[in-house]
Amino acid sequence: MKKNSLAVVVLALTLASCYNQERNCTDYKTGKFEFVQEIDGQEKKSVFERTENLQIETFDGKTDTASVRWVNDCEFVLQKLHPKNMQEKKAIGMKILTTSDKGYTFEYAFVGDAKKQRGTVTKIE
């Protein structure tokens, strides 16, 4: 019985290690996107447009612009161009984890911060 269980576990691990989810990150380097998140129990929507070098985002009626520096096809760094305080001066590292035909899942954190958060973005144009 133990041999059969071990064989099943080894087979499952072998199959799982062969599975590589395809990421088409270059499909999301530019375009218009929507990000929905929950803040204080309310759903908030952010809409942003990204070019190769800039990201213009509108959130809660306010528009901000950030520079975009691509580290590789799936990772980039955002830096606000006109920060209003020390917190806004901090760069944000973004990493696209998975992609689909509608958008992507990503993780993000202030550069140098180990506490990462996740989100999902939908491409709207």
Provide tags for this entry:
Lipocalin, 125 residues, 8-stranded antiparallel barrel
State the gist of this model.
Helix content is 17%, strand content 51%.
Describe the protein's architecture and organization:
This is DNA topoisomerase IV. It comes from Flavobacterium saliperosum S13. It is globular and about 40 Å long. It has one domain (22-123): Lipocalin. The protein contains 2 helices and 8 strands; from the N terminus they run αβββββαβββ. With 125 residues, the chain is α+β, with helices and mostly antiparallel strands.
Contiguous runs where pLDDT drops below 50 for at least 5 residues: 7-17
Helix count from the secondary structure assignment: 2
Per CATH, the architecture is Beta Barrel
Look at the structure and name the CATH superfamily: Uncharacterised protein PF14869 family, DUF4488
CATH topology: Lipocalin
What radius of gyration results from the CA coordinates?
19 Å
Number of domains: 1
Q: By helix and strand content, what is the structural category?
A: alpha+beta
Protein name: DNA topoisomerase IV
Organism: Flavobacterium saliperosum S13
